[in-house]
């Protein structure tokens, strides 16, 4: 019988492994306005939401309702925002991709029209409107991938604020633990060779080494299914010299 490794002991995930809801404000999504309507909004406040690096802008639109959106660089309290067909392609404004000129930097892009914005919402991230065609808009993402998007999908012009957050060191393990807890991530992650033999198949020994091949089969029992699972090739590549 195999060992119950750390990942299996977590099970479905208890309270310490789930993203907590304390400190959450509201979903950050666009209001459900018609694409042909032009609406104006005012930034009322900039808020920090737990588990999110980018600041959140609290915006009051002309229908007296509030919406929460990821703030772009340069956003300040009192800024005016335009949303909808006919809005100017200026920073912080929200337009459909079909109305945004080529080469414009955008963020908070809808994957499907009306979903409120699903992509490019991390701090410091942005995409570029690459080109337009008859029925699609090509958008270049930070990974370098170019996707054909629906021209009705909306996006905010600018770069998500808080881009330097990841450059600040944690300095203490406790700060890193709280950061990971707010995102529901497992921390700390201990190497298998650093554990005792009773806790992991790679553990034990006079020094930290596996002691046997790290490749396991696809049908290996769960307790021993650690390491390289059914790899296609491992080790150094062998190059045959031509005769």
UniProtKB/TrEMBL annotation:
<dbReference type="GO" id="GO:0019843">
    <property type="term" value="F:rRNA binding"/>
</dbReference>
<dbReference type="InterPro" id="IPR002171">
    <property type="entry name" value="Ribosomal_uL2"/>
</dbReference>
<dbReference type="InterPro" id="IPR022669">
    <property type="entry name" value="Ribosomal_uL2_C"/>
</dbReference>
<dbReference type="InterPro" id="IPR022666">
    <property type="entry name" value="Ribosomal_uL2_RNA-bd_dom"/>
</dbReference>
<comment type="subunit">
    <text>Part of the 50S ribosomal subunit. Forms a bridge to the 30S subunit in the 70S ribosome.</text>
</comment>
<dbReference type="InterPro" id="IPR012340">
    <property type="entry name" value="NA-bd_OB-fold"/>
</dbReference>
<keyword id="KW-0687">Ribonucleoprotein</keyword>
<dbReference type="GO" id="GO:0003735">
    <property type="term" value="F:structural constituent of ribosome"/>
</dbReference>
<dbReference type="InterPro" id="IPR023672">
    <property type="entry name" value="Ribosomal_uL2_arc_euk"/>
</dbReference>
<dbReference type="InterPro" id="IPR014722">
    <property type="entry name" value="Rib_uL2_dom2"/>
</dbReference>
<keyword id="KW-0694">RNA-binding</keyword>
<feature type="compositionally biased region" description="Basic residues">
    <location>
        <begin position="233"/>
        <end position="243"/>
    </location>
</feature>
<feature type="region of interest" description="Disordered">
    <location>
        <begin position="202"/>
        <end position="243"/>
    </location>
</feature>
<comment type="similarity">
    <text>Belongs to the universal ribosomal protein uL2 family.</text>
</comment>
<dbReference type="InterPro" id="IPR008991">
    <property type="entry name" value="Translation_prot_SH3-like_sf"/>
</dbReference>
<dbReference type="GO" id="GO:0002181">
    <property type="term" value="P:cytoplasmic translation"/>
</dbReference>
<dbReference type="InterPro" id="IPR014726">
    <property type="entry name" value="Ribosomal_uL2_dom3"/>
</dbReference>
<comment type="function">
    <text>One of the primary rRNA binding proteins. Required for association of the 30S and 50S subunits to form the 70S ribosome, for tRNA binding and peptide bond formation. It has been suggested to have peptidyltransferase activity; this is somewhat controversial. Makes several contacts with the 16S rRNA in the 70S ribosome.</text>
</comment>
<dbReference type="Pfam" id="PF00181">
    <property type="entry name" value="Ribosomal_L2_N"/>
</dbReference>
<feature type="domain" description="Large ribosomal subunit protein uL2 RNA-binding">
    <location>
        <begin position="11"/>
        <end position="83"/>
    </location>
</feature>
<keyword id="KW-0699">rRNA-binding</keyword>
<protein>
    <recommendedName>
        <fullName>Large ribosomal subunit protein uL2</fullName>
    </recommendedName>
</protein>
<dbReference type="Pfam" id="PF03947">
    <property type="entry name" value="Ribosomal_L2_C"/>
</dbReference>
<keyword id="KW-0689">Ribosomal protein</keyword>
<dbReference type="GO" id="GO:0022625">
    <property type="term" value="C:cytosolic large ribosomal subunit"/>
</dbReference>
<feature type="domain" description="Large ribosomal subunit protein uL2 C-terminal">
    <location>
        <begin position="89"/>
        <end position="222"/>
    </location>
</feature>
């Amino acid at each position: 019988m195999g060992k119950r490794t750390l990942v299996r002991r977590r099970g479905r995930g208890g309270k310490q492994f789930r993203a907590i809801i304390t400190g959450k404000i509201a979903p950050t999504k666009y209001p459900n306005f018609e694409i042909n309507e032009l609406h104006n909004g005012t930034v009322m406040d900039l808020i920090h939401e737990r588990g999110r690096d980018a600041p959140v802008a609290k915006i009051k639109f002309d229908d007296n309702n509030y919406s929460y959106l990821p703030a772009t660089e340069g956003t300040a309290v009192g800024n005016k925002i335009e949303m909808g067909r006919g809005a100017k392609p200026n920073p912080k404004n929200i337009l459909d991709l079909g109305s945004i000129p080529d080469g414009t930097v955008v963020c908070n892009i809808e994957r499907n029209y009306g979903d409120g914005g699903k992509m490019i919402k991390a701090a410091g991230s942005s995409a570029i409107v690459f080109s337009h065609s008859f029925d699609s808009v090509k958008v270049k993402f930070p990974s370098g991938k170019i996707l054909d998007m629906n021209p009705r999908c909306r996006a905010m012009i600018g770069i998500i604020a808080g881009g330097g957050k990841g450059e600040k060191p944690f300095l203490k393990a406790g700060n890193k633990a709280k950061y990971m807890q707010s995102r529901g991530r497992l921390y700390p992650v201990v190497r298998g060779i650093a554990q005792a033999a009773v806790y992991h198949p790679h553990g034990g020994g006079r020094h930290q080494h596996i002691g046997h091949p790290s490749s396991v089969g696809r049908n290996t029992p769960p307790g021993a299914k650690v390491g390289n699972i059914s790899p296609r090739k491992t080790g150094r590549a062998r190059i045959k010299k031509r005769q």
